[in-house]
Structures are given as C-alpha cells and as structure tokens.
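Data deposition worksheet. Section B asks for the primary sequence of the deposited chain exactly as it was used as input, without tags or linkers unless they were present during the calculation. Section C holds the resulting structure in token form. Section D is free text for depositor observations; keep each observation to a single sentence. Incomplete worksheets are returned to the depositor.
Section A, Depositor: J.P.
Section B:
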Amino acid sequence: MWKEALRLIKQRPLFGHGLAGYSAYADSPHLHAHNTYLELFAETGVLGLVSFIFLIIIFLKKSFSLLIGEEQKEKRIILAALLSSCLSSFIVALFFTNMLVGIRFASLFWIILSMAVVLKSIDFETKT
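Section C:
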C-alpha cells in the first residue's frame, strides 16, 4: 500500500492525482494507503500535503500556547484532553489509517480540532 502511494507520488509530485486519486490510480486491491500523509501526498501533491501539515502545526502551536497561558483549570484539563486526542490521531494516521476519509475518522478528527479552537471563547467561571 505504501509502495503504491510512493509510486503515485513519483508520477505527479506537485499536484497529485486528485481527491480519491489513490483508489482510482493505485494498482492495489486496497482503497486507501493506510497512511493519511502518504495518501494525501499522492492525491493532492506536495502543495496539499504542505498545506495540511501547516494547518496541523498552526493548530498545535495555538493550542499549546493556549494551554500554557490558560488560567482556568477546567479549560486546561479539557484542552489537554483534546490535544492528547489530536496528537494520538496524528500518530495513528501515520501507520494505520487515513483519518480524512470515512465518517468515523474524519468527523471525529475535525470535531476535536474545532472543539479545541472554540474552547478559547468559553468562560467556565460563574459570575455573580
């Protein structure tokens, strides 16, 4: 699966084969490369992969700075849990699955990402 993704990447490294291109152009019985980053690279090229990694880096950087600077204990706990979930999904995506396809993985990934972003605007302190 990974070898096939690498073959597709070599064919069209800049723009890739298009979304769902792995399943359309791969000479493999598998529909996915079982590696989010390789499949994304094969389908969207270096531009798509760099954009996705840039999105992840920005998210992690912002989330860690929020975690360090947050004064509310409840927010820190929730943010730490969300960050742990995201980090583990980024690692799992390297070896076992494509987290951007399938309702189970894709929706969970984007929900966790957006929860961490929205968390900044929630105030857990009660005002009297």
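Section D:
The two ends are 59 Å apart (CA to CA).
The first helix runs from residue 2 to 11.
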